[in-house]
Amino acid sequence: MMRDTMKLSDYFSDRDIVIDKKFSTLGYVDSNINDTLAYCDTLVYLEKANANENIRCLITRPDIADKALSDKGVVVSVSPRNAFYRLHLLLLEEKNYGLQFEYGIGENCSIHPSASVSKRAKIGNNVTIAEKVIIKDGVSVGDNTFIDAGAVIGCEGLLFMKDGENVIFIRHAGGVRIGKNVTLLSQATIVRSVHPGFLTVIGDNSIIGISSNIGHDAQIGKNCLISSNCVIARRAKLGDGVWVGPSATIREQASIGPNSQIKLGSVVIEDVKANESVSGNFALNHPMHLRHYVKKKLDSHK
Length: 302
Description:
Layout: E1 6-7, E2 17-19, E3 22-23, E4 25-26, E5 36-40, H1 43-51, E6 55-60, E7 73-76, H2 80-92, E8 104-105, E9 110-111, E10 116-117, E11 122-123, E12 128-129, E13 134-135, E14 139-141, E15 146-147, E16 152-155, E17 160-163, E18 166-169, E19 176-178, E20 183-184, E21 189-191, E22 200-202, E23 207-208, E24 213-214, E25 219-220, E26 225-226, E27 231-232, E28 237-238, E29 243-244, E30 249-250, E31 255-256, E32 261-262, E33 267-268, E34 277-279, E35 284-285, H3 286-300
Parallel strand pairs: 4-5, 5-6, 6-7, 8-11, 9-12, 10-13, 11-14, 12-15, 13-16, 14-19, 15-20, 16-21, 19-22, 20-23, 21-24, 22-25, 23-26, 24-27, 25-28, 26-29, 27-30, 28-31, 29-32, 30-33, 32-34
Antiparallel strand pairs: 1-3, 2-7, 17-18, 34-35
């Protein structure tokens, strides 16, 4: 996935290291990759890191560092997130930090001459790539997928940190996995993941509508339909069979249960249960929302 194991002492000063241990990748506190280094800027996240055996090292605040388990490597910082992403940016300068997989283009593909397909992407069999599509490093596209004009897959997304008054953009190191039989319509944008161990995913048989934006680390299940002009923010998770109406927005890290429906123009700020239908800004249970709407209309005519 990336370079061989590193030690905290390779990158942090002795005064900031509580326990020096090795790690092999960067990630979140819920990482499923062995020997991950994560950051924990609150006690809640520190407890999650403690409970996850894949977290080998962590960066946390001095006032809660003593709560870390003794088998974890620990670095202290008054700004754990900034320290973590400074290391992330440093590792990006090393050519062997990032995704490692077999690249190439499969059989019976139709790729328009104006399309740009990275040599560090993997394209399956029977894939159609239309005019001016851009497919960047670290993208894997499954068999029988159709990508219409102007779609962009594997681009950078909005991620930053503040250093005093300065805003610093954080480049991404991960990738995108597009399943089989997926349809990406014109101008759809799929952002690459931040870390190489956790990809942005579009599940098999899903459709992404015109000008919709899928944020970094988002997980779109199988057989999902995302209509035009939608925003699915970072780390949002959509179960299988989810339907998202035009111009809907789903906030970061929201969990949308299987076979649920997000109605036109909804702004979803909370998790949605399986088979539930929500609508409105902010989105509520759709039948409840309709009852409120009808009551309001009736009251206005009294």
